[in-house]
Design a protein that fits this description.
It contains five helices and three strands. It is mainly alpha-helical. Helix 2 links the parallel strand 1 and strand 2. Helix 1 crosses helix 2.
Length: 103
Amino acid sequence: MLRREANQAPPDAMHLIMTHSHAVDLEIVSAVLSGPARYCGLIGSATKRATFARRLAERGFGDADICRLICPIGLPGLKDKRPSAIAASVAADLLIRSKDDRR
């Protein structure tokens, strides 16, 4: 069902994945990367990204698809772990990406 829902989103959709479970996150990321989404962001660390990259490769995803996964999310270089700072950083990053894509 996730794959169908992800593929029903417009090709320029920006998917932001933030669930309670790494297993659920992986299923959603797999579904999103199977389609044409322009952004697939996953809350987490560089370590989580490396784990997901390995698991996606095990599922048959190529380097080009895995490179589309943005994790950690937000503006580069943010070291602040407060939820409000992360939220502001993610919102700013998505706004910048949205504006850049419209040029």
